[in-house]
């Protein structure tokens, strides 16, 4: 990506064929008081996909989102959303982005209906009708006061406000945190429907199980850096958990473990009488290598596909 792409006046004909992703981030750095909160992050989000950013609290997820929204400028690196720098061209980007924060900012003294009517003049024709339909789908009454809504219903109301705008990109920052399972399931179903309809969703969360249900691509953020980024399809095809049972001391041949994976050896941990290894691209002759290393002490080796949670823990703790 050339820096010149973000320094001229906005001209869609010059930009829209230059960069394939609707979100493009290259070598993104954000520092506060000389501490890098986001450190050399790069990723691309394809149109109509669900990209999930996973990380513990304080990993830099919300800081990244603020730069995508144009609310914060990077210390260095490039950010482009819908082919422009969101901080330079907020008038281009913001009308096409829906944003649902972890804690929705709603007016508690209003009713659900009044809130929609307040937002309608700032949006396109038919906004309130679209909003009211979403509210009905979510099982929320228009005449209910915001102050009387549960946390889950407030989250759904916030989602309805954004979906009624018919955004090209929906950015969600910990949207289901603290919600009960039924509301969370309904919320995620809407995300899946959006992706099926060709919308792009950028989801930040630490709820790993829910991400696994809806995401196309995932990235793990640790201390401001990516430690993993791949598609869910690649995880199913390439990543494996190998549980090895050997009589006696497992540390006899620790150098063997990386050679069992042609792609990447991620983590080894003891599980009772077995040792669990996580890696990418398990070699075809893994059992022969184990037998050669442990001889008659080798008992068995079981292979499985790691869950997203298993992979997250492996990368975060190795």
Radius of gyration: 23 Å
Residue ranges: pLDDT <50 for 5 or more in a row? 1-19
Tell me the overall shape.
elongated
What proportion of the residues form beta strands (DSSP E)? Answer: 25-35%
Oligomer: single chain
Percent helix among the residues?
25-40%
Short recap of the structure:
By secondary structure, the protein is α/β, with parallel strands linked by helices. It contains 12 helices and 13 strands.
Give structural notes:
By secondary structure, the chain is of the alpha/beta class. Helix content is 32%, strand content 30%. The strands form 3 sheets. It has a 6-stranded mixed beta sheet, sandwiched between helices. It has a 4-stranded antiparallel beta sheet with strand order 11-12-10-13, sandwiched between helices. Strands 2-1-4 form a 3-stranded antiparallel beta sheet, covered by helices on one side. Strand 1 and strand 2 (35-45) form a beta hairpin. Helix 4 runs antiparallel to helix 5 and helix 5 packs antiparallel against helix 6. The chain is elongated and about 75 Å long. Mean pLDDT is 87; it is low at 1-19.
Topology of helices and strands:
Blueprint: H1 12-15, E1 23-32, E2 35-45, E3 50-54, H2 61-68, E4 76-81, H3 90-93, E5 97-100, H4 112-119, H5 127-137, H6 151-163, E6 169-173, H7 181-196, E7 200-205, H8 208-214, E8 217-222, E9 225-231, H9 232-238, E10 239-246, H10 256-259, E11 261-271, E12 274-282, H11 286-294, E13 298-304, H12 308-317
Parallel strand pairs: 3-7, 3-8, 5-6, 6-7
Antiparallel strand pairs: 1-2, 1-4, 8-9, 10-12, 10-13, 11-12
Helix pairs in contact: 4-5, 5-6
């Amino acid at each position: 990506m050339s820096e010149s792409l973000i320094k001229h006046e906005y001209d869609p004909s010059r930009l829209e064929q230059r960069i394939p992703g609707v979100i493009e981030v290259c070598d993104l750095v954000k520092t506060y008081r000389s501490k890098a909160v986001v450190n050399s992050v790069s990723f691309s989000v394809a149109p109509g996909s669900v990209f999930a950013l996973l990380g513990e609290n304080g990993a830099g997820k919300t800081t990244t989102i603020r730069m995508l929204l144009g609310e914060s400028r990077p210390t260095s690196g490039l950010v482009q959303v819908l082919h422009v720098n969101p901080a330079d061209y907020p008038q281009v980007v913001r009308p096409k982005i829906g944003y649902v924060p972890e804690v929705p900012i709603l007016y508690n003294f209003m009713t659900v209906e009044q809130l929609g009517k307040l937002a309608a003049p700032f949006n396109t024709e038919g906004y309130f009708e679209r909003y009211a339909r979403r509210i009905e789908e979510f099982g929320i009454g228009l005449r209910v006061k915001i102050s009387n809504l549960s946390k889950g219903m407030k989250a759904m109301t916030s989602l309805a406000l954004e979906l009624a705008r018919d955004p090209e990109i929906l950015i969600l920052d910990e949207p289901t945190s603290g919600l009960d399972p039924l509301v969370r399931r309904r919320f995620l179903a809407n995300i899946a429907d959006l992706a099926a309809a060709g919308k792009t969703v950028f989801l930040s969360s630490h709820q790993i199980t829910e991400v696994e249900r809806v995401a196309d691509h995932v990235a793990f953020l640790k201390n401001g850096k990516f430690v993993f980024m791949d598609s869910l399809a690649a995880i199913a095809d390439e990543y494996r958990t190998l549980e090895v049972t050997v009589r006696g001391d497992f540390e006899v041949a620790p150098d063997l473990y990386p050679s069992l994976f042609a792609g990447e050896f991620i983590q080894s941990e003891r599980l009772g009488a077995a040792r669990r290894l996580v890696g990418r691209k398990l070699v075809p002759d893994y059992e022969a290598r184990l037998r050669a290393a442990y001889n008659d002490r080798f008992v068995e080796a079981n292979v499985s596909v790691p869950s997203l949670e298993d992979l997250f823990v492996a990368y975060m703790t190795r």
